[in-house]
User: Which sequence fits this backbone?
């Protein structure tokens, strides 16, 4: 049975394919269109998922949508009240998902719709590999729910309590994100990173914005917010409370802004810990599954792991709206078969991989710029290590693209974590982003505990922990002494693990700085042409594109025209057999 899951029309549009209960492909639309957070129907991702499995639209048994349009409409109408233009727009939107799926995807078969937070919950529980667990979802808002509490048991998923809009931890954090001059639904992670520089001296004022209630409940004081009518995330009363006007996006960041970030992060962590303890008391389960956009707050996740009552924690790695497609597909599988999906999300290498011949044609178009290491992997790895040790920054493009927001060794930028200049250089010249933002390490699983307070695998970079390494690691250690590691093993990413081992043999350091292969404002690269454009337009020194190595200094003067001509042709995906 072939089930396609889709999440779209708000932000982070994505598509996945579940085949007989096995997740075979998943991708975000932004990677194909090159429009960051592209919310449109994921036509390109849909075509990729079918092509990856060698299917046509006729082979699709069911398409599952990640939320309930009519229920969402009810909340939209409640929010706009008596404003007829907005109400009319919302009314038209209710029928849009089915219309687009029928007309643009050509699907004439069954179409199932599932509640937004149920899709989040299913994306965590049914892909955890556990047969029972407590389930917590936290985001801005779905239809009405903003937080849900539940329990999963085999194929059953019971969500027994919810917090309803407008009371929302995600919207609380978003409002402070906007107040601090960052974009909502995009830059919340910047607030999390900035928080480490400040002190939570405004925490008592942030607590005035939200009241803890019995059980799983909490309430926002709506005097401080204006998002219900859609005019602004916060009201002028918030600025009065905090004592300064909102920061404009290009204003300098002062100690005040750092302290506000630290304060909202402190309140978020404290409230999440209270609710996690309530859920444990209510369910008695030993394991916790989490999803929803707030579950991407890795600092809070680390505290839940360390201080919470659960023995184990699984966070769905594409925890935001993109991952809702996974949950919708799983729920459709349960409804149609009576069984839970036969899948455990041990990796997210679910995106496109490209035919070697197609990559070779692109390489040939650049002339003599690339060194060919086909059939000589050890020599390639040693050459890359030479460059990393010399302080160079490497673009690394290998195999299937990752699904979700993290680069995990397939579309990554790599550097020496012991280099004191690497962080500033990558932030300023390569990523072209704020200097306060930290970078994460990718570390060999069997060495992680020697360098981090991390006694368990963490393959998805979803929790922070203390650095206690005997090595100086200035490029990946945040100002508060923490890091957000990815643990790497050869079973999942053999070439990336081999590179880490080669670097360890040479330097005694079993990790590399790893950040996403993109520049500010752009999605992570998808195709070989994307990688070449990013390589030369950024300050990267080296690009490893599958079996070829490019030196920046060796690129021909007319490289951009050559790559543009090649990039205008549809990239050729590797066939299913070559990826198995």
Assistant:
């Amino acid at each position: 049975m072939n089930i396609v899951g889709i999440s779209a029309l708000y932000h982070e549009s994505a598509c996945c394919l579940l085949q007989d209960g096995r997740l075979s492909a998943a991708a975000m639309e932004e990677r194909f269109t090159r429009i960051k957070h592209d919310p449109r129907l994921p036509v390109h991702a849909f075509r990729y998922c079918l092509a990856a499995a060698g299917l046509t639209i006729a082979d699709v048994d069911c398409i599952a949508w990640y939320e309930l349009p009519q229920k969402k409409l009810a909340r939209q109408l409640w929010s706009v009240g008596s404003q007829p233009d907005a109400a009319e727009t919302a009314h038209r939107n209710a029928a849009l998902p089915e219309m687009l799926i029928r007309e643009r995807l050509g699907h004439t078969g069954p179409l199932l719709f599932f509640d937004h937070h149920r899709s989040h919950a299913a994306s965590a529980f049914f892909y955890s590999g556990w047969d029972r667990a407590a389930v917590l979802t936290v985001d801005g808002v779905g239809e009405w729910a903003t937080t849900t509490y539940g329990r999963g048991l085999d194929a059953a998923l019971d969500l027994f309590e919810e917090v309803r809009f407008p009371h929302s931890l995600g919207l609380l954090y978003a409002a402070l994100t906007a107040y601090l001059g960052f974009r909502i639904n995009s830059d919340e992670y910047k607030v999390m990173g900035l928080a480490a520089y400040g002190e939570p001296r405004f925490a008592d004022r942030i607590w005035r914005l939200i009241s803890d209630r019995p059980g799983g409940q909490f309430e926002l004081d709506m005097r401080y917010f204006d998002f219900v009518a859609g005019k602004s995330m916060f009201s002028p009363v918030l600025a009065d409370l905090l004592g300064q006007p909102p920061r404009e996006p290009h204003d300098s960041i002062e100690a005040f802004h750092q302290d506000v970030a630290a304060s909202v992060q402190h309140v978020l962590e404290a409230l999440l810990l209270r609710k996690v303890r309530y859920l444990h008391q209510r369910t008695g389960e030993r394991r916790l599954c989490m999803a929803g956009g707030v579950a991407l707050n890795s600092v809070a996740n680390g505290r839940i792991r360390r201080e919470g009552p659960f023995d184990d924690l699984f966070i769905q790695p594409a925890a935001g709206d993109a991952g809702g497609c996974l949950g919708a597909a799983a729920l459709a599988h349960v409804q149609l078969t009576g069984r839970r999906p036969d899948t455990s999300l041990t990796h997210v290498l679910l995106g496109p991989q490209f035919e070697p011949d197609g990559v070779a044609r692109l390489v040939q178009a650049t002339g003599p710029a690339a060194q060919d290491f086909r059939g000589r992997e050890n020599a390639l790895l040693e050459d890359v290590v030479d460059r990393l040790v010399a302080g160079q920054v490497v673009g690394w493009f290998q195999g299937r693209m990752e699904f979700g927001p993290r680069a995990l060794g397939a579309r990554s930028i790599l550097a020496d974590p012991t280099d004191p200049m690497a962080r500033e250089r990558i932030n300023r010249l390569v990523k072209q982003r704020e200097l306060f933002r930290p970078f994460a390490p990718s570390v060999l699983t069997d060495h992680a505990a020697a360098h981090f307070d991390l006694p368990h695998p963490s393959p998805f970079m979803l929790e922070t922990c203390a650095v206690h390494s005997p090595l100086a690691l200035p490029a990946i250690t945040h100002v508060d002494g923490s890091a957000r590691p990815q643990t790497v093993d050869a079973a999942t990413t053999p070439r990336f693990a081999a590179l880490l081992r080669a670097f360890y043999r040479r330097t005694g350091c079993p990790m590399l700085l790893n950040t996403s292969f993109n520049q500010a404002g752009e999605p992570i690269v998808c195709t070989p042409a994307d990688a070449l454009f990013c390589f030369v337009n950024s300050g990267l020194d080296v690009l490893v594109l599958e079996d070829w190595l490019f030196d920046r200094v060796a690129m021909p003067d007319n490289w951009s025209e050559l790559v543009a001509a090649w990039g205008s042709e549809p990239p050729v995906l590797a066939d299913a057999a070559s990826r198995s």
